[in-house]
Amino acid sequence: MTVVAIIGGSGLTRLKNLEITRREVMRTPYGEPSAPLVFGRLSGREVLFLPRHGAGHTIPPHEVNYRANLWAIRNADVAKVIAVNAVGGITTDFQAPGTLAIPDQISDYTWGRAHTYFGSDAGQVTHVDFTHPYCAPLRATLIDAAGRAKLVLQPRGCYGATQGPRFETAAEIARLERDGCDIVGMTGMPEAGLARELNLCYACVAVVVNPAAGKVQGDISLKEIEKQLEAGMAKVRTLLEQVIPLIKD
After folding, report:
1. Are the CB atoms for 40 and 20 separated by under 8 Å?
2. What is the C-alpha to C-alpha distance for residues 49 and 14, in angstroms, rounded to an integer?
3. b (16+ CB within 10 A) / e for 77-98
């Protein structure tokens, strides 16, 4: 039984220690997912892996087919999802590159993305509760696993999801901070909302790769981000290897 799906973001287009057993091309009513679903064993248990931006990291955040990705995962009979997201740090406790966070809230600043399964073609108006956007039991398991692996992380936080693919202005980051956001990224929504519509248990592992715009002097350096991505994703792999055995079927 596949215990969890892992959606890899920037810097995590593959899992180095995943013992791949099969790949499956999945077609959905919403088009094709970002890549074939990769099934394999990690820490002795079967998991599903899907790179959000495609196997070659070619799909920008505003063009990811989030609906197809989540639908394919649900259609593979997987009920739990760990999403990995590279983010910028806004508030003081979240600014250091390499910081891991398990956010408990999200604010959506995206636009124009296909963000729901419940459009007019659904036949009836449907609303879902999104008060607490992330799955509390899965968040708790991730926090427990981090402790066991001796990984320091922020056990809460608010993720501000922006449109991209450009980085934000300093004024936009100031607004996000006033709104209560601790971190900023481009892929948190509509992914989290779609997972809720499908009744998936969904949690996020956010990796800070740079202080957000205006939080340090000078421009954001892509070279420095790539360096921090490599170090941060090494921590994520450690966390994933630790958490997989703790997830209940």
Report:
1. yes
2. 8
3. ebbbbbbbbbbbbbbeebbebe
For CA atoms 29, 32, 4, 130, the dihedral sign is negative
Q: Could you read off the pLDDT of 209-245 as tens digits, one per residue? A: 999 999 988 777 777 888 888 888 889 999 999 999 9
Query: For the stretch 197-225, what's the b/e string if a residue is b when 16 or more beta carbons lie within 10 angstroms of its beta carbon?
Result: bbebbbbbbbbbbbbbbbbeeeebeeeeb
**Tokens 């990705």 correspond to what residue?**
69
pLDDT in tens, 75-86: 999 999 999 999
Residue 100's H or E segment, with its range, is strand 100-101
Residues near 176 by beta carbon (within 8 Å), at least 6 away in sequence? 90, 107, 109, 160, 162, 168, 184, 212
Structure tokens at 87: 């983010």
d(CA 30, CA 111): 18
Q: How many CA atoms lie within 13 A of 215 on its CB side?
A: 27
203 φ/ψ angles, rounded to the nearest 5 degrees: -140, 160
Residue 222, SS3 per DSSP = helix
